[in-house]
Design goal:
alpha+beta; Four Helix Bundle (Hemerythrin (Met), subunit A); 4-stranded mixed beta sheet
């Protein structure tokens, strides 16, 4: 049996690992597409409480974008045989990935302070603790209501003459549940990305990569950049829908 040369093995790995990564990414896209559809359908409920994202989620968005930039620089540095720069940039990417999760957790804490929880949350508690128009808004049949002195009015009732009665807050659907679910699942996938990144970082420190062979770094970067774009999509989706 003919022995496979290192270059041939590298080419075989490239043809195997990258397609597998794209298949995994496609499955993740389908998962989040399903959750996004569920979110849009839920908005058609009679009463919908739209919760706004705390600023910590914006900060985490900036952090994950920076992490993609540092990962790209690290990969390019390896391709140019700038090993020291590659080590620094991959290490920085790892730190930024951890910081992203830290600020996501801070965002969860801010949501909890305003009465928002993944389960067993009460809309009345959100109304009591939050500021209308800043922390949340209330929609009935897709129409944003106006609040004045603790009462809710149809937006056409400019004189606030007839408050809307019988608003069943306990049956209201809350976008906060989707915030926790979507961002939580994203974090779960990001932890997988961090483990992959840690493995790449260790191999980089041990000089296991070279300009001619750094496939593991390339595959890990594809996944990491995907998680970056996925979060930016989720952030925009949860902000504007």
């Amino acid at each position: 049996m003919a022995k496979i040369s290192p270059s041939e093995r590298a080419e075989i790995n490239k043809k195997v690992y990258k397609p597998l990564m794209w298949i995994a990414i496609a499955s993740i896209v389908m998962l989040f597409a399903g959750f996004s559809s569920g979110y849009i359908v839920s908005q058609a409920d009679a009463l919908w409480l739209k919760v706004f994202l705390p600023n910590e989620f914006m900060i985490s968005s900036v952090i994950i974008v920076l992490s993609s930039i540092t990962f790209y620089i690290g990969q390019r540095s390896m391709a140019k045989n700038k090993i020291a720069a590659a080590k620094s940039m991959i290490g920085l990417t790892l730190v930024l990935g951890i910081l992203f999760i830290v600020f996501q957790m801070k965002g969860y804490n801010k949501l909890n302070e305003k009465g928002n929880f993944f389960s067993n949350g009460k809309v009345a508690l959100v109304i009591e603790k939050g500021v209308y128009g800043t922390d949340y808004i209330l929609l009935k049949n897709g129409i944003e209501l106006t609040q004045k002195d603790g009462q809710f009015y149809d937006p056409m009732d400019s004189g606030f003459l007839k408050p809307i009665e019988n608003l069943d807050f306990e049956k209201a659907n809350r976008s906060a549940m989707y915030i926790f679910a979507l961002s939580g699942i994203h974090i779960a996938h990001l932890i997988g990305g961090l483990l992959s990144l840690l493995y790449v970082f260790i191999k980089t420190l041990r000089n296991r990569y070279s300009p001619d062979d750094y496939l593991g770094m390339q595959v890990s970067s594809i996944y990491w950049h995907f998680l970056d774009f996925l979060w930016l999509y989720l952030f925009a989706f949860l902000t504007f829908f």
